[in-house]
Amino acid sequence: MIAELECVVLDCPDPMELATFYQSLLGGAVNQPDRRWSLDDDWATLHAPSGLVIAFQRAADYQPPRWPDPLRPQQFHLDFGVPDLDRAHDQVLSWGATVLDEGLAGRSWRIYADPASHPFCLVRQKKRATG
Fold first, then answer.
1. What share of the chain is helix, strand, coil (3-state, %, to 5)?
2. Residue range 33-54: average pLDDT?
3. Could you tell me the domains of the chain?
4. Is the peptide bond before 68 cis (omega within 30 degrees of 0)?
5. Which SUPFAM superfamilies does this chain map to (predicted)?
6. Helices marked H in the chain — which ranges?
7. What would the mean pLDDT of 12-17 be, rounded to a whole number?
8. What's the pLDDT score for residue 102?
């Protein structure tokens, strides 16, 4: 094991609106402070009572899925927290992932596709404060 599932991320046109919808369905806290990410107009989160975190990411030119239409498939990605981004990068490539966007130098995440082309991110875990 090299990673922990941090959240499931849904693309959408309005992150806060979708977070509020899922809060109505599941309960929990919208945009609860969390050391793993920052919040802005393009990103919202829901921390459900079960411990599940769902994130909502604004997508430019969002085209909603039309299930079961294969021309407009379901849309989401997974974020995996890793302690060592470079090491995890090498490991997922050796298992068949492909790089979609390594990002800018110093960025805390990289984007890949799994062997079936589903996108996922490796995200550098922030160190926990001790004390």
1. 15, 35, 50
2. 93
3. 4-58+71-124 (3.10.180.10)
4. yes
5. Glyoxalase/Bleomycin resistance protein/Dihydroxybiphenyl dioxygenase
6. 15-26, 85-94
7. 94
8. 67
Q: Which of 27, 38, 25 is nearest to 108 (CA)?
A: 38
User: What is the Cα 39 distance to its own chain's centre?
Assistant: 13
Show the tokens assigned to 106. Answer: 């110093």
Q: How many CA atoms lie within 13 A of 76 on its CB side?
A: 10
Summarize pLDDT for 77-114 with one digit per residue, the tens: 888 999 999 999 999 999 999 998 866 677 888 999 88
Q: How far apart are the first and last CA of the chain?
A: 27
Torsion of CA 11, 17, 18, 20, to 10 degrees: 150
Buried b (16+ CB within 10 A) or exposed e, 1-36: eebeebbebbbbeebbebbeebbeeeebebeeebeb
34 Cβ neighbours under 8 A, 6+ residues apart = 45, 47, 53
